[in-house]
Design a protein that fits this description.
91% of the residues lie in helices and 0% in strands. By secondary structure, the protein is mainly α.
Length: 255
């Protein structure tokens, strides 16, 4: 028996937790207001029926009281005409209607109390409904705000701030590297352009190169013995070279 109680308790607790997790505050509050409005409608119907019964008993009481007064008048009329038997019969009828009137008066008093109680309860219910509607709007607003806050916190919880900022840092390093490469390419292009203009401006340096090439060519034409093939001394060849060199220098100076 103890085992069954424990299993039953576990089942009830799980069902209760499931129902609690499935409850939407906004839907529950709206449904509660709807149920209260339905109760108010039913209570209005009950009050209306109670008032109708009160009016009906009141009419019956008034009719019974009128009958009492009528048979009282008839009894007096019979006595004035010296008809005691008829007067007695009228008084009997009067007594019957008087008893009915007293019973109806008790019923009317009781029904009047019931109507007052129902009206008071209906007034309280209307006040509760008005209060519930005001509180419902406030609770719904709080529930929506709490739900939005919960969703934001869940999103924040799912975001790994460290990895996110690490990605930004990697991208920043990559952008810095691209900018450095672009600057280096631009600098190399400027240096190459400067070198080309420097080479054009220093065009006179080709004369020295040409002079060296000329010397090498002249020296390459001399025989291995150190003199020309005509048998003239090497001093003459050297004099001619010096003369040609001097002429070249003059030509260069005139440029």
């Amino acid at each position: 028996m103890g085992l069954f109680d424990r299993v039953s308790r576990i089942i009830r607790s799980n069902i209760s937790a499931l129902v609690s997790s499935a409850e939407d505050p906004e839907k529950i509050l709206n449904q509660t207001i709807q149920d209260m409005s339905e109760d108010h409608y039913q209570m209005r119907q009950a009050v209306a029926q109670a008032i109708a019964a009160q009016k009906r008993i009141e009419r019956q009481y008034e009719q019974a009281q009128q009958s009492v007064d009528e048979w009282q008048r008839r009894a007096e009329l019979a006595l004035r005409n010296n008809n005691e038997a008829l007067a007695r019969e009228a008084l009997v009828r009067k007594k019957t209607f008087a008893e009915t009137a007293q019973s109806l008066k008790r019923q009317l008093d009781e029904q009047t109390k019931q109507v007052e109680i129902l009206k008071s309860n209906m007034t309280k219910l209307e006040s509760k409904i008005a209060e519930a509607k005001t509180k419902k709007d406030m609770l719904i607003a709080r529930a929506r705000a709490a739900k939005a806050s919960q969703q934001i916190n869940q999103v924040i919880g799912r975001v790994d701030a460290t990895s996110a900022f690490a990605a930004f840092e990697r991208m920043e390093e990559k952008v810095n590297s691209l900018e450095a490469q672009s600057a280096a390419v631009a600098e190399l292009a400027v240096d190459n352009l400067e070198n080309q203009f420097a080479a054009l401006e220093a065009g006179g340096s080709d004369v020295d190169h040409e002079l060296l090439m000329l010397k090498a060519s002249i020296q390459g034409q001399l025989p291995s013995g150190g003199s020309k093939s005509s048998g003239q001394p090497s001093t003459a060849s050297e004099s001619e070279v010096d003369l040609e060199l001097e002429n070249l220098r003059k030509e260069i100076d005139q440029l």
